[in-house]
Design goal:
The protein is 42% helix and 17% strand. By secondary structure, the chain is α+β, with helices and mostly antiparallel strands.
C-alpha cells in the first residue's frame, strides 16, 4: 500500500493551483496526510475521492467512531462504583434524590447509579455517551481560557479530517446560508459572545459544565471564502476522551442542521 501522502498526491490534479494556500499539490498531500490540512481544502477533489482517501488515512469508516456511543456498558459499570456526592462538585454537577444532575446546554440530565438517563428533552446516543464519559473521567480540570484546535486534543490528529468534514464544514455551510443562525443558537443554548477574536461571530457554548467550545465564523469578504473553526478550552484535553468529544460535536452539527431548517 502506498504511503498516505502518495495516495493523496496521486488523486490530485497536480496543477499546483494554490487554492489550498500551499505552493504545490505535493505540499498539500503531505499536509493532509499528517492532519494539518483537511482534504476539503482542495476544491478539485470530488466527494467520492475525499471519502476514499479519508478511509485510507484513518483505516476505518466513520461508523466505527460511533460504536463507542452504542456500547455504554463499561461506562455504566464505572458509574456504579462512584460516589455522586464526591464527584458532583468536581465536575460542575449536583445530586438530587440520589441522581447525578448534569447540565448540558441549559438542560438538566438526571443520571442514576446504573447509568440510566432522563431529561425533559429526548436523550440521544450522541448525548448519552459523552455525558457518561464526562461523569466517570478520573481526572478533571477547570476551564483555563486557553483555546486549542481539535487536532490538539489527545488522539484528535487521527480523526481531524473527519471532524472538519462532519462538523466544521457543516456548520460553515449553515452559517453561510443563515447569517443570524449562530446568534439564535447563542440565545437558545445559553451561549455567550466572546470578545477579542477576529471573526464576525465568536460564540462560546457549554455542552458540559467544564467543556467549553468556541465557534468562530468569518463571512466571505473581498474575494475570500468564509471560514469557520471550532476551538476547545485546554481543559477539554483532560475532561473528555477524544471519541466522546467527536461524538458530541458531530451530534451538535446534526442538531443545528435540523434547527436551520426552521430558521428564517
Amino acid at each position: 500500500m502506498a504511503a498516505p501522502h502518495l495516495a493523496i498526491y496521486r488523486a490530485l490534479a497536480k496543477s499546483n493551483c494554490g487554492r489550498c494556500q500551499l505552493p504545490s499539490c505535493l505540499a498539500f498531500a503531505a499536509a493532509a496526510a499528517c492532519g494539518q490540512k483537511p482534504l476539503a481544502d482542495c476544491p478539485l477533489l470530488d466527494e467520492a475521492t475525499r471519502e476514499r482517501l479519508t478511509a485510507t488515512l484513518h483505516g476505518a469508516p466513520e461508523q466505527e467512531l460511533y460504536k463507542f456511543a452504542k456500547d455504554l456498558s463499561g461506562l455504566e459499570e464505572q458509574l456504579a462504583r462512584l460516589d455522586f456526592a464526591v464527584i458532583a462538585p468536581r465536575i460542575g454537577a449536583a445530586v438530587k434524590d440520589g441522581r447525578l444532575l448534569l447540565p448540558s446546554f441549559g438542560k438538566a440530565f438526571e443520571i442514576d447509579c446504573q447509568g440510566r438517563m432522563r431529561s425533559e428533552c429526548h436523550v440521544m446516543p450522541w448525548v448519552q455517551y459523552p455525558l457518561l464519559a464526562y461523569a466517570v473521567s478520573s481526572q478533571h480540570q477547570l476551564p483555563t481560557g486557553a483555546w486549542i484546535s481539535f487536532r490538539d486534543l489527545p488522539g484528535g490528529l487521527d480523526v481531524h479530517n473527519l471532524f472538519c468534514k462532519r462538523c466544521e464544514l457543516v456548520l460553515k455551510r449553515l452559517a453561510d446560508a443563515h447569517p443570524g443562525l449562530l446568534h439564535d443558537l447563542a440565545e437558545l443554548f445559553q451561549g455567550t459572545e466572546a470578545a477579542g477574536f477576529e471573526a464576525d461571530t465568536s460564540l462560546i457554548l457549554h455542552p458540559l459544565p467544564h467543556f467549553p467550545i468556541l465557534i468562530c465564523w468569518q463571512a466571505a469578504e473581498d474575494g475570500l471564502d468564509s471560514s469557520l473553526s471550532i476551538l476547545f478550552d485546554a481543559c477539554c484535553k483532560v475532561n473528555l476522551p477524544v471519541n466522546a468529544a467527536f461524538s458530541l460535536c458531530i451530534g451538535l452539527a446534526q442538531m443545528f442542521e435540523k434547527i436551520a431548517l426552521l430558521h428564517r
